[in-house]
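Q: Here's a chain of 137 amino acids. Please give me its 3D structure as tokens.
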Amino acid sequence: MNMAFDAFHLPYDEKDGEAFAHAMGHWRAFPDTKDAILDLQKYVRVVLITNTDDAIIAETERTIGVKFDEIITAEQARAYKPSHKGFLLARERLGLQVAEIWHAGFGLASGTISCPQLNWGTRRCGSTGRMRRALWM
């Protein structure tokens, strides 16, 4: 965060970073998030693999008002995406074969790099809200 503030010549204090981190769990989800998760859970297990820590994502889960089927945090995996560690931990916990996994993510850090390397089926959610095949070069 310090680097971003410096790039825009804005004042920054370490307390700002701490306040930002503590606020993350209280951010509101998009209005359709809760219903979309509940609808998905009728058909599949909904699992988060997140670059946050356990405390932040626990608060996020409470804020959204849903119970995810499993949550893998960077804290648990001891690595941030795009490392494979969180994805491999999720597969281990779920006991799934690669062919049984379908990953949806937004952006490169969300797994759209790691999952194809692991041969997981991957869809990238674009800013248009449409699902589209991720392209790899």
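Q: Can you summarize the key feature?
A: Helices lie at 2-7, 14-23, 33-40, 54-64, 74-77, 85-94, 114-117.
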